[in-house]
Amino acid sequence: MADVERAMAGGDLVNARQALARLDGLLAPESLTLLRMQAWVAHAGNDTARAETLYRRIAERVPEDVNAGVNIALLDARRGDADAARTRLVRLSGRHPRSPQVARALAELGSTAP
Predict the structure, then answer these.
(1) Tens digit of pLDDT for each residue in 84-105?
(2) Is residue 64 a contact partner of residue 31, using CB atoms and an 8 Å limit?
(3) Is residue 59 within 8 Å of residue 72, measured between CB atoms?
(4) Residue 75, C-beta contacts closer than 8 angstroms, at least 6 positions apart
(5) Chain CA centroid to CA 99, Å
(6) What contacts 18, CB < 8 A, 6 or more positions away?
(7) Which letter, b or e, does each residue of 7-28 get, where b requires 16 or more Cβ atoms within 10 Å of its Cβ?
(8) Residue ranges of the chain with pLDDT lower than 50?
(9) Rounded CA gap, 54 and 38, in Å?
(10) What residue spans of 45-110 are helical by DSSP H?
(11) Cβ atoms within 10 A of the Cβ of 111, count?
(12) How is residue 27 annotated by DSSP?
C-alpha cells in the first residue's frame, strides 16, 4: 500500500500501477483496501468508467463511505448528470455534516446542502 501511495503522491502512475499489481497479488479480490487503491489509480489515470465501477462497488458494501460517494458524485457531474451528483452529495452531507470533502464537492458543483 505504501508503494502505491508514494507513487500516487509523486504523480507516478506507472509505478503506482506496478505497485497496485503487486498489492493485487497479496490481497483478496474483494478487499476494500484493494478496491479503494484500484479506484484511486483508475481515477488518476482518467479511466473514469473503471473508477466509477470500483467506487460503486465500494459504496454498495459501505454506503456511508464518504470518499466513494463524493467520487461517484463528481464522476456523475463530469458525465453531465449534475442532478444525480447534487442529490448524492446532499444525502452525504446529511449523514456527514462536518465533512470538508463533501462541502468542497458541493461547492464545486455550485450547490449548498439544505
Answers:
(1) 999 999 999 999 999 999 999 9
(2) no
(3) yes
(4) 43, 48, 51, 52, 55
(5) 15
(6) 7
(7) bbeeeeeeebbebbeebeeeee
(8) 112-114
(9) 7
(10) 48-61, 66-78, 82-95, 100-108
(11) 16
(12) S
**Rounded Cα gap, residues 85 and 87, in angstroms:** 5
Q: Which amino acid is at 31?
A: S
At 113 the pLDDT is: 45
- Nearest CA to 42 among 50, 34, 30, 31? 50
Amino acid in the structure at residue 22: R
Amino acid at 62: V
For the chain, report the end-to-end CA distance as a whole number of angstroms: 38
For position 99, what pLDDT does the model report?
A: 95
pLDDT at 111: 54
> What pLDDT, on a 0 to 100 scale, did the predictor assign at position 110?
83
| Contact call for residues 102 and 70 (beta carbons, < 8 A) | yes
Identity of residue 80: G
